[in-house]
Design a protein that fits this description.
By secondary structure, the protein is α+β, with helices and mostly antiparallel strands. It contains two helices and seven strands; from the N terminus they run E-E-E-E-H-E-E-E-H. It has a four-stranded mixed sheet with strand order 4-1-6-5. The chain has a three-stranded antiparallel sheet with strand order 3-2-7, with no helix packed on it. The longest helix is centred in the C-terminal third of the chain and has 15 residues. The N and C termini lie far apart (39 Å).
């Protein structure tokens, strides 16, 4: 009997292999050290960082630029990437509904990017199509609340906040 194993960055593999959707996430940090969080348009009370899937054949860095522009309207000249770290994973619980083109993924594998905002950057622009977020705010990292997240994402966010900001989020 074949066993399941994890892998990175492949599409169209055997159905016996657990497939994680590749994802990039932006930790947008302003001059005061605050990080941008956005409330999901269709899920009131659910706050997250700008993020999205990496298209097949797309480089992670290019996906980051695309997602940041698509979700919050910032162009590459509005920020600089200070560092990145990948390998953050979570699995979807069985109750999570997924569109047909994502149904074979068991979860997401994320690469996070620490993005430092330029002082001349414009305000956040959530009026993008399709609209992802209803509102945004800048918070200090220690103000992030795990209660804003579904339980299955909390461990990942705890690791990210510790790795990038030295902040320990507790339940």
């Amino acid at each position: 009997m074949a066993s399941k194993f994890d892998f990175r960055g492949s599409w169209g593999e055997s159905p016996l292999v657990e497939q994680f959707r590749l994802n990039v996430a932006a930790l947008m940090v302003d001059e005061q050290g605050r990080v941008l969080v956005c409330e999901r348009f269709r899920v009131p009370g659910a706050w997250q960082f700008p993020q999205g899937g990496v298209d097949e054949g797309e480089e992670h860095d290019k996906a980051l630029l695309r997602e940041v522009e698509e979700e919050v309207g910032f162009l590459p000249e509005h920020y600089s990437v200070a560092k990145s770290k990948g390998g953050y994973r979570y699995k979807f619980p069985s109750w999570v509904s997924k569109p047909a083109h994502k149904s074979h993924f068991v979860g997401q594998e994320q690469t996070y990017y620490l993005c430092l905002m330029n002082p001349e950057a414009p305000p956040v622009n959530l009026m993008q199509e399709p609209r992802e977020f209803s509102q945004s705010r800048w918070i200090y990292p220690e103000e992030f609340s795990l209660a804003w997240l579904p339980e299955f994402k909390r461990e990942t966010y705890q690791a990210v906040m510790k790795d990038f900001f030295g902040v320990k989020l507790s339940e």
